[in-house]
Queue: 4 jobs
Job 1
Amino acid sequence: MSDLRVFAAARGYTVPAEDGECSQMLMQSMDFLEGRSWRGQRSSASQPLSWPRSGVRFDGVDLPDDAIPQRLIDAQCRLAIESQEIDLTPSVSGGGAVIAESVQGAVSVQYEPGTNKSTPSFPWFYSSLRGLVVGGNQVRIERG
């Protein structure tokens, strides 16, 4: 909770005063993070979350396998703040319900409010976690 409050205050964001609300925001951001692919492997097969990890090298330095990198903590805090405005893990049901459509030169489509749920995209996410997260256009290759 303190990481979220410090992160928000340093950047001019506001977060709820109630710890319970902040805890929910952090859980939602954790759910988003758990849906990503990360470099390395879990430090322990029995740990419930993706971090801490072993086998992660960043800027030529092996990261400790018993700690969570500060940039990942910061990303969780920023996602928690984003969760105040948008659903980080919406149920995607194939697109919005079209309520109006017209073709007159340019195509115009209008969707029923609340039906166009797509997975949110954050341009800052992959750049801030470069070296930790496996990007969408990358694949893991292991030598046998």
Job 2
Amino acid sequence: MMINRSKRLIPAIVTVTLGAMLILTAAPSFSGDPLQEIRDIYAAVNKTIEEKKAQVILFYTSDKGWKEAKDPEQKEFKDIDEMDAFERNYVYLHDGRIIKVRMALETPSGDWMLVRDYYFYDNGRTAFVFDDLATFQGYVPDHDEIEGPYVVEKRVYFDAKGKQVKALKKAFVKATGQEISAEHVR
């Protein structure tokens, strides 16, 4: 009788074991480290752009609205109002979806320039935002001025559900890389 019971349990054990194996192998592999996943997205997106596999659309914005540039690589702005050339938005598309957006804003005087990059998960949510502010203004703590330009970098990381998982801010002198307090840079 014991043998008959064992024979009846074998199919159930095999079914449960195979089911568990199927579920475990079919589940997406996730290292559990959202920062590593974001770094992988960042690397893959930039590689796609460097290899010129992404379509680039450049928009100039002003108080009059926006205008799409004929050539995103153009260096001269003959067909663009001079003031519009200081606010540019690059949209990078690959396989029918937006993989990166770059917003670049600068002053006509050249006192500062802000470049903000957005990277996206396949589900369209923001994975990573990177701000790079270059400025000649600021950093005069206790009258110990260090000559600029200065750079303030801000990084914000999000998980695939949109929850912020990490934020970093760093300021430094552009020429030397010497770190300074971000509080004093305007």
Job 3
Amino acid sequence: MKLEREIARKNLKRKPIRTAALILLTAFLAFSVFGGGVIVMSLQSGLKSYQSRLGADIVVVPYEARTKASLESILLQGIPGYFYMDRSYIDKVRAIEGVDQVSPQFFLASASAGCCSVPVQLIGFEPETDFSIQPWIRENYAGSIGDGDVIVGGRIAVPTNYKLKFYNTECRVIAQLEETGTGLDSAVYTNQNTIRMMMANAQALGFQNFKNIKADQVISSLMIKVKDGYNIEDVTNDINLHVRRIKATPAKSMISGIAGGLANVSQMIGGLVAMIWLLAMVVLIVVFAMIANERTKEFAVLRVIGASQRFLFWLLTLESVMIGLSGAVAGTALAALVVFPFSGLIRSRLGLPYLLPGIGKILPLLLAAIVFSILAGWLAALFSAGKILRQEPGVVLRDSV
């Protein structure tokens, strides 16, 4: 095996341009397999995280925010926004048959001004009734949430003094949540008293958008849990029928649109990877066939001086594996330099939940991409090796004279 390895290495060095071209082609294949795989897995991980964090069966918003895009732009894309409805809707919705739990939320967007540390989405919730945010918070923080306390999303930079300011309201960061791959990572969470203080200070600072808002009398949305045995769609329809000027939407319908977009992107990436693999295989087969034609005399001489067919087979195998391994390592390394540092840009471009998977999922994908790329080169070499090994060395040498 040592002799075959040395000859294979020298053969590759003897034709540096050809070797580099084959490595480049294999690297492109590995790049597409690993990079595409990471993106698809990140989308799947993001959707799963989004489903678990939404928490509610039904989401109710004021009628002017009835389009799903209004709420999704806040929850999914992290675009700060706000809309309000009267608090009386809490009791009206709670009175609908089949409704089990109702928890209000209050949305406020911080400003790009000196009164705010950072422009983000502010979400106020009632710790006493909440069932959608606190289970997520408890993964990182088990204490109580007092007035002036805030919990920040995973993509918000926390100052070393753990202090943030929103509309001149000094807040203390008590916890930072794990990333979800959605706009929730760019949000700040607090209790209703704190967010009302922020609203009052915003009005005092002269922000016209909040001029006529009575913070103690309004809410932005209602998160609803349906009782066991009741159909979510039926309860949603009852709310829309009996409560005016609001829009109730099943949470799963918000997720279904995202899942559809994810499926389309995944299919597109999968199809692209399949096309690249097929194209790479065709090119590799053609190139190795051309190489085989060039090396028929070389192999005939080796056969005459005593080299066996098995020796030549291993020689071709080693050459293809060396090329495949070099290309696979280069391709996966380049893919890693693209998909990991620029995950935020990819997330914003796709507009879908995007959460990088853990190392436990990435390592098997990395190994699969490397093996896949090596296998492609080996199959191409094997296809052309049969032609060389079947030829009689005496005939080849006689014809070449």
Job 4
Amino acid sequence: MSNSKISKDTNDMGSFIGKLKREDNNLQKLYKILKITYIVLLIIYIPIFYFEIEKGGLVPILKVVFIVSGFSIFLFCMAYAQKKMKKISYAEPTLMLLKKTEKRYRIFHPIDLASIPAFLFLAVGLGLNEKIFLTIKQFFNSDLNWRVYLVEAWQFLFSGEHWYKMFAKTVNEFPMIIVFMATGLFIYILVILLVLGYILWILKYKPIRDNALELIKEIEN
């Protein structure tokens, strides 16, 4: 291998490590900020939870339980991610460092699945009220046809034809449509967040992973 090739590879690796350190540091700061945010939110909701228990009533307690559960899951995810970032060592052998970087900057990690129930708990906690709770309770206690309700909900959510008239008519005849509508809205929001997350990964994090893969290939060859 020529001296110029060695020099170029060394410069490429040095430039990559510098960029990697900056991005890792930014991610660690972000996880720390989010962790502190969820801790503060939990501190706020703990006394609220206590007062709701003192007042009695199932729905207010359920609201706080769902919200606290959502915040707790997000807190665990942020704390776990920050802990992993703090353990990163740039003194490791180059190939090992690159392979860990490639793994760290993949688009999906198993712990990401925890964000789905966390987001769902927050959506339920923030949207639940006495009327919706009673409607759900009546729905599950009734002997009415599930298929009819699901077809009605599907038509309402996806037909788009005179939906405002359909809504006024349907809410009186079929109160559970509000719950189905909220579920549909939750799915829409979740899909939008996934798309935005994918775009962010493509623009900001995929180049780092691709660079790591290229360097791994060069070293192994």
